[in-house]
């Protein structure tokens, strides 16, 4: 029985030794053996028995831990990387992996892009980088284009945010880039919004050019409640709204006059005479169909425009004096402004559509 136990133990050791010697390890690199300087390299060892340990070697020096991965972003040409496969205790080498001999190519780093970061629609902006030899491109040519060799940017459409100019220098197969976000501006004006507002209501004034500052002539009549153009009307009167903005297109100061009127609480239609007698609208309020008449002693014409509370144009037409024009455009319920412009005068009246 004693001999049988010894024989069984010897057979177990032989099988274990044979199994250990049959283990192999292979190392792969995420970017191959030829890389650019500063590349984050990851080496991964593969074997069939995940319980075994790995001993990573760089240039004959033990590095990293005992896991199957090793990373380094500071390799240089001539560096060698491989690993040993050891038993679980780490005291017996079972196999040696393939050897990676690194070739590291130097890359040329661009400098900071200078020359500005904003351009007007239709205008140009010359960009520069102190490190020559690179190529320029735009990440969105619908907002701006850039000459690939000279770095001259041309504004196409207003925009700002994700659109950037990129300057790339490529040495061998090693590109390196810098980026700069570009804002494309438009000239300011005119201000857009309602010209007549009910007292105690809020309204909004907008401009195509962003980034400016609103001010008012009399904050007791209407004042700014949101810096992006939100206003509160406090009492009846007339207030001038100013918008100042400076951008790549120039410096601008736009003005808009807004009349604050007392409105009927039920209809929201002005019960204060704020318009000239030359413009008559009836009925008012109405269900979306109404008549407009321009009354004058002269045989003349005028331009009639209809806008909503946000200042958006709904309809525009030429009309002759002293004739009734029926408007049946099927307006949605709400408040609209009818503006009549002659050569020398402007008439405005509010209409309520139920």
UniProtKB/TrEMBL annotation:
What the entry lists under InterPro entries is as follows: Secre_tail (IPR026444)
Q: Enumerate the spans annotated as Secretion system C-terminal sorting domain.
A: 281-353
Which residues, if any, are the signal sequence? Answer: 1-22
Question: What UniProt keywords are attached to this protein's entry?
Answer: Signal
Spell out the Pfam families in the cross-references. Answer: Por_Secre_tail
Q: What is this protein called?
A: Secretion system C-terminal sorting domain-containing protein
- In its UniProt entry, the species of origin is given as Flavipsychrobacter stenotrophus
